[in-house]
Amino acid sequence: MDKKMLKIMGIVLGGFVILIIILVLIAACSKKKLDYNKLQDTMVSAAKSYFQTKPDDLPKEDGDTRSVALKKLISDGFMEEPSKTYKNEELVCDGSITVSNNNGYYLYSPSLTCGKDFKTQLLKDKIIDDSFVDSGNGLYEVGDEYIYKGEVDNNYVRFPGQNKLFRIIRVNDDGTIRLIETEGLENIQWDNRYNTMRTAATGNNDYVFNNLNSRIKDAVKGYYNDSSIWPDQVKAYIITQELCIGKRSDADITKDGSTECAVKIDNQQLGLLNVYEFMQASLDNNCTSTRAIPCSNYNWFNSFKKRIWTVTADAGDTSKVYVLFKSISSSMCNNSYSANAVFNISDKVTYVSGDGTAGNPYVFR
């Protein structure tokens, strides 16, 4: 075979290879990359549009829910069939959007299954999968709850689109997730009113008395109403709670909340930490009473760098409340410390990303 023929064959072969490459690139460009998080965002947007046309179908009462199926959103023209969007005829997905009324704010929670390739995971399930332990630092099953104990460093979380960090205290028995701010309101007095027992303005340690609020309760309420810190999209995740405000003594040995939860107030969005929640987080068996120093051992709450108020008052002195800094101590109400909000978020929040560490916190939808 002469050189001319070899040259012609080489040109033909090269042209064929180039044609194949071009066809592959065209196919790749025409087929959108499948992003399940983006697909769930599309479902949420479609559901919001759907309920804008049917506002009477939205849940009316706090705690109520409604749902709409993915197939309904597609058939009514609010979104495209995923197989068409991603130009993949083999893609078969099913799911729904649940809308929850959380204190007047609407949370849209997607649930999506696409064959064996993807299934929406609830944040509570991700937390349990990642951290459940029988010993050492981690998440312990206590009754029907899951509580972080020990020197854990993977219980950080942040709201979508927000930078503020929170830490997970536990997964409650109803599946809601209890959080505490890593940074809260600074220089807050628990109370500064005149105390008749002390005959001075040392404050009274009733969080609420005869429908009258303590100074700190008013501060927490005002804090929640600050839309620059708690915008509507964040409030939609927060579940109305019963806040335990019972007083306890230094010698109290309970860790199950029975003392604090003997007195409750309902319809609260934000609260403060209870003493028993700090005690539960310690792995030291010598954490046996309210002010036992060993409670500070093997306890992730030790990472807090400032003194923070608890919501738990000292039953032995009407002018004192318990404060956390490494361990629990009793402090005059008119002192000024940090008030770190504690609250519950919906059991329907879904996992998006993160491993729970401070540098890569859990992000949810």
Q: What's the arrangement of secondary structure elements?
A:
Blueprint: H1 3-30, H2 36-53, E1 65-69, H3 70-75, H4 82-85, E2 93-102, E3 105-114, E4 118-119, H5 123-131, E5 138-142, E6 145-149, E7 156-158, E8 166-171, E9 177-181, E10 185-189, E11 208-209, E12 212-213, H6 215-224, H7 232-235, E13 238-239, E14 241-244, E15 264-268, H8 275-280, E16 308-313, E17 320-325, E18 327-332, E19 336-339, E20 342-345, E21 351-353, E22 362-364
Q: What proportion of the residues form beta strands (DSSP E)?
A: 25-35%
The general outline is: globular
Q: Compute the average pLDDT.
A: 92
- Which segments are poorly predicted (pLDDT under 50) over 5 or more consecutive residues? 22-31
Cα Rg: 27 Å
Question: Would you write up a description of this structure?
Answer:
This protein is α+β, with helices and mostly antiparallel strands and 365 residues long. It folds into two domains: 36-120, no CATH class; 129-345, no CATH class. The protein contains eight helices and 22 strands. It has helices spanning 3-30, 36-53, 70-75, 82-85, 123-131, 215-224, 232-235, 275-280; strands at 65-69, 93-102, 105-114, 118-119, 138-142, 145-149, 156-158, 166-171, 177-181, 185-189, 208-209, 212-213, 238-239, 241-244, 264-268, 308-313, 320-325, 327-332, 336-339, 342-345, 351-353, 362-364. The strands form six sheets. Strands 5, 6, 7, 8, 9, 13, 20, 21 and 22 form a nine-stranded mixed β-sheet that branches. A four-stranded antiparallel β-sheet has the order 1-2-3-4. It has a three-stranded antiparallel β-sheet with strand order 16-17-18, with no helix packed on it. It is globular, with a radius of gyration of 27 Å. The model is unreliable at 22-31 (pLDDT under 50).
